[in-house]
Amino acid sequence: MGEGANEAEQKLGQTLFDQYFSHASVKLIVKEGEEPEEFWAAFDGGRTEYSNTKDTGIALGFEPRLFQASNAQGYFHVEEIPNFAQDDLVNDDIMILDAYQTIYVWIGNGSNKFERNGAFKTANRYIDSVKDERDKDSV
Question: What is the DSSP letter of 36?
Fold first, then answer.
């Protein structure tokens, strides 16, 4: 069990175990940092460095959102990009990524001053307008 596992993740782990290993029973729950050598021996190469990020800052079930900010149409316009990927970052514009606890403002090399000023104002207005459980003061 990872050190950063929350209650919902622990319950999900138990549910998955019950579903896939219904013929077995849990004899021992091993917490991160307390793994016996036999545990690590099961991995090819044994124990090595691994990612131990405890909190991504993204709430369970939250889907990050990407917005494109541009004045290419003659006025400042912000549009959400659905099902986005890295290829959606437009070098001539500003992109705003809502990652729940952090709002990123990505400044394309070809963006202009008007777009940059508008994007930061828009990001701040967006934070104020979200209607979810996050603490807006800590975003």
Answer: -
| Residue count of the chain | 139
Q: Tell me the sheet residues that pair with 103.
A: 98
Q: Residue type at 90?
A: V
> What's the whole-number mean pLDDT along residues 117-137?
87
Q: 26 with 83, same domain? A: no
Domain that holds residue 1: 1-54
**End-to-end Cα spacing for the chain:** 28
CA separation for the pair 4, 60 (Å, rounded): 13
What is the reported pTM?
0.58
Mark out the alpha helices in the chain (DSSP H runs): 7-20, 37-41, 113-129
